[in-house]
Fold:
Amino acid sequence: MKIVTEKIKLKTTGNPDLINITEKVSEILTRSQLKNGIATVFVVGSTAAITTFEFEPGLIKDVQDLLEKLISEKGSYAHDLTWNDANGFSHLRAMLLGPSLVVPFEEGRLLLGTWQQVVLAEFDCRSRSRTIVVQLIGIS
Ligand code: ZN
Structure:
């Protein structure tokens, strides 16, 4: 059993930036030479999330519209009064989707569906530099 931990660093443009990171996670798995196990993908920070959906323009818009309906950017939030900032909605969206995703892998390939991508969701109201931790646990 081996544990490999790597980090993906990228810059986002702020809410509601959705970035397909599937390829980057796959590259880390290939480099690790691990064959069977699980990959945890985790974003550091409380205003971003990791999720999965079919990454195509229509669904990207649907996801953004759904989040705006559930937790509107224009709503008023107690958190904004605490720090006098404006990202209460960002924290709530991040909490709802969660910071991580576990994907099993077999024979060196992530067991994702063809239309199932790993997506970083940026909810903060400004551009951020994000660190995504990819931790693989498995055997080669
Ligand atoms: Zn905040």
